[in-house]
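Retro notes (design track)

What went well: tokenization of the new backbones is finally stable.
What didn't: we kept losing track of which sequence belonged to which structure.
Fix going forward: every design gets posted as structure first, then sequence, in one message. First example under the new rule, 515 residues:
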């Protein structure tokens, strides 16, 4: 509620300021209250050209143009001080009323000589404007995101650069506002050991209305739900909670260095706020209120089988005719060098002769039709893994390909709690919604009171990668709360194939959420 009030005050403050600015400029002040027309009049008052009207029509650019126009308004009142103009850019809703209500006089720019400033001042102005506009655009409108892993292949490829729309689901207010601009959670050049933010101010979750809501099969960018606590040696490559289950809590907390690959890396334990957890991208397969189950790697939602995304991948064992150049064949089929190296590692470990690689259904059919291929066998992972798979508890004998059923909670829904169902919702209650939870003498206590039910405060989602056998997703860490949602992957703006060191021209301007 407080954020809605602040947003109203922002617009009201700007309109009130323009009312008095227009009046000082000899323009009927009521014109400041008419949308669009007030911008036309404002541009004219500041003596700007017709091009500024075009700038206001371009999404994201119009934010920068608005801030520049506030500065131009200061200039027609002969307010040239750098710090005052910086204040105007950051707090236009305060500055415009101050400008309109004080005794300073308006000067028609058509009768004025251009005010000259030093080259240093030019650079300072440009840096401030660019920085403020970039922070606003990145936080509230759109952001670029690089696909770092193969978990979404072949729908989205490693090396794809995506435009992520914050407006699609509504801009989320920064919960940790004291942070280095344009940096996510760690300082550059510190090897991930030093945070780029301060936790002195923490604000509650709030999201402004967006163009829509999360839909099934959207490619969604979100903050890593298991990233509330981080071992800096591993970051999100292996969650703190997985390390605790593997090594024991005391061993992890006391470890000054942890093994990463072939080296020991300095380690610190960090607790991160929601908006500073690592960004992940997966496909939303389950919405609030849905029931999810995976049977023989097929996903069922509310009892109905969900179609595979056209370019999703499953794992296959391929047996080639002896003596062939398997690497060249797999490379020509689009198998990444990383997947090929992983296949070699599996062959050495298991002592087999089959290449275990991810393929789309179309790739698998093409491989089966080759005369130099003996067999193509789809792999099913049906081994129970209590240590790695959600909810990490006895009684849930689930595997990657046979999982659930799981009910996805919705905001306002009342969940029935028993000792059997509690592992599914314990993290939701404690971490995501901030309650204390204890189990004593076979009874569940929430915030000190015995409870058999719990009413959810947020909506939750179920996310899965399209590369189903090579994706750390909701099968491993459970639900994604609505306050972790960052935005919708909308467009591939650039793509670079690191294996072959070339641009993938055919992927540029491809829709990122298509399936």
């Amino acid at each position: 509620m407080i954020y809605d009030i602040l947003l109203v005050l922002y617009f009201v403050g700007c309109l009130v300021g323009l009312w008095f600015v227009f009046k000082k400029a000899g323009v009927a002040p009521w014109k400041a209250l008419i949308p669009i027309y007030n911008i036309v009049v404002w541009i004219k008052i500041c003596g700007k050209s017709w091009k500024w009207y075009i700038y206001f029509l371009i999404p994201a650019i119009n934010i920068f143009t608005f801030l520049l126009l506030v500065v131009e308004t200061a200039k027609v009142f002969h307010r040239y001080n750098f710090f005052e103009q910086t204040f105007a850019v950051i707090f236009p809703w305060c500055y415009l009323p101050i400008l309109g209500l004080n005794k300073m006089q308006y000067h028609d720019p058509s009768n004025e000589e251009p005010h000259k400033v030093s080259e240093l001042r030019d650079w300072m102005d440009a840096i401030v404007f660019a920085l403020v506009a970039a922070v606003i655009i990145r936080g509230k409108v759109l952001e670029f995101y690089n696909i770092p892993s193969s978990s979404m292949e072949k729908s989205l490829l490693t090396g794809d650069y995506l435009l992520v729309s914050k407006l699609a689901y509504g801009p989320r207010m920064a919960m940790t506002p004291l942070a280095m601009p344009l940096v996510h959670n760690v300082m550059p050049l510190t090897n991930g050991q030093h945070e780029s933010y301060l936790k002195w101010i923490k604000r509650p979750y709030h999201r402004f209305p967006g163009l829509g809501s999360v839909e099934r099969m959207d490619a969604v960018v979100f903050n890593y739900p298991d990233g509330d606590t981080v071992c800096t040696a591993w970051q999100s490559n292996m969650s703190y909670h997985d390390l605790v289950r593997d090594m024991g809590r005391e061993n992890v907390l006391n470890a000054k260095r942890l093994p990463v690959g072939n080296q020991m890396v300095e380690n610190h334990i960090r607790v991160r706020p929601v908006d500073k957890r690592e960004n992940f991208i997966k496909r939303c397969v389950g919405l609030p209120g849905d029931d999810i189950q995976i049977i023989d790697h097929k996903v069922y939602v509310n009892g109905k089988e969900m179609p595979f995304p056209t370019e999703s991948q499953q794992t296959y064992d391929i047996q080639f005719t002896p003596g062939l150049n398997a690497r060249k064949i797999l490379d020509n089929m689009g198998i990444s060098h990383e997947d090929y190296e992983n296949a070699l590692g599996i062959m050495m470990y298991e002592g087999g002769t089959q290449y275990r690689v991810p393929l789309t259904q179309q790739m698998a059919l093409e491989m089966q039709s080759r005369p130099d291929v003996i067999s193509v066998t789809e792999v099913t992972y049906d081994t129970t893994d209590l240590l790695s798979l959600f909810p990490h508890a006895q009684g849930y004998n689930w595997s990657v390909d046979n999982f659930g059923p799981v009910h996805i909670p919705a905001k306002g829904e009342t969940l029935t709690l028993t000792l059997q169902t509690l592992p599914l919702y314990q993290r939701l209650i404690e971490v995501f919604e901030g309650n204390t939870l204890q189990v004593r003498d076979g009874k569940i206590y929430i915030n000190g009171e015995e409870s058999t039910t719990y009413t959810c405060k947020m909506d939750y989602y179920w996310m899965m990668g399209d590369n189903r056998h090579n994706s750390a997703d909701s099968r491993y860490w459970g639900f994604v709360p609505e306050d972790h949602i960052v935005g919708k992957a909308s467009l591939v703006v650039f793509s670079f194939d690191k294996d072959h060191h070339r641009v993938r021209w055919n992927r540029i301007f491809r829709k990122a959420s298509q399936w």
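Added context from the reviewer: The mean pLDDT is 88.
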